[in-house]
Amino acid sequence: MARVVVNVMPKAEILDPQGKAVIQALGRIGVSGVMDVRQGKRFEIEVDETVTQEQLDHIASTLLANTVIEDYTIEVTQ
């Protein structure tokens, strides 16, 4: 069995209102020096040895990420 981590982030050219809200909140709590925040999603999936990289890519691209506005990475760990 392996653990798969899929990280989904907004594409660089897409506005990230949640990230901007975090930047504003940091200022309100007295934190300075943070230049940018991008908010994304992390999925942890347990799979057995029958699941292929191609299937993982299909899962990420069709179910977990909106590939029009989001990029994703897949990390497989043991």
Walk me through the topology.
Elements (H helix, E strand, L loop, with lengths): L1 E9 L6 H12 L12 E7 L5 H12 L5 E8 L1
Antiparallel strand pairs: 1-2, 1-3
Task: Report a brief summary of the structure.
The protein has helices spanning 17-28, 53-64; strands at 2-10, 41-47, 70-77. With 78 residues, it is α+β, with helices and mostly antiparallel strands. It has a 3-stranded antiparallel beta sheet with strand order 2-1-3, covered by helices on one side.
Describe this structure in words.
This protein has one domain: Mth169, Chain: A, CATH 3.30.1280.10. The protein starts with a strand and ends with a strand. It is 31% helix and 31% strand. It has 2 helices and 3 strands; from the N terminus they run βαβαβ. It has a 3-stranded antiparallel sheet with strand order 2-1-3, with helices on one face. By secondary structure, the protein is an alpha+beta fold. The mean pLDDT is 96.
